[in-house]
Amino acid sequence: FFSFICSVTNKKPAQASITKVKQFEGSTSFVRRTQWMLEQLRQVNGIDPNRDSPEFDLLFENAFDQWVASTASEKCTFFQVLHHTCQRYLTDKKPEFINCQSKIMGGNSILHSAADSVTSAVQKASQALNERGERLGRAEEKTEELKNSAQQFAETAHKV
């Protein structure tokens, strides 16, 4: 069956992509089938907002792709993640979400709160790592100074 991944790099500026993967019967691994940059996404079509169905379409700059999620719930979760990712990382052309249930585009969903919490935790961890790196750098400099001082002392002591 096919599955999908919405991923964001940790490089600056961040790059988001949508990847379609396939898992073959009897295998636990996935094979990448197609990948698009988020900027290429033009339209997300939920097909029918009045019924829970797993089918949906994605329209990209130069491609149209039909998808089927494992469940309608998985489709809803993917749409929420995709919508949130588009709002967060696309500044210019945001894709149009059509024929989607209104709960997917809800303003303050649990998903948005969770994503913001994760982002906040990552930022705090990154800041802590940067601070630790700076302290380690200062410690290395101090160690080098002490080493040089010890060498000078040893040379002077050897001469005496």
Automatic annotation (TrEMBL):
Disordered: annotated segments: 129-160
Domain V-SNARE coiled-coil homology stretches: 107-160
Gene Ontology terms describing biological process: exocytosis; Golgi to plasma membrane transport
UniProt entry keywords in alphabetical sequence: Coiled coil
GO cellular component: exocyst; plasma membrane
Any Pfam family matching the protein: Sec3-PIP2_bind
InterPro entries the UniProt entry points to: Sec3-PIP2_bind, V_SNARE_CC
Biased composition (Basic and acidic residues): 131-147
GO molecular function: phosphatidylinositol-4,5-bisphosphate binding
The name this protein goes by in its record: Syntaxin-binding protein 6
Originating organism: Pelecanus crispus
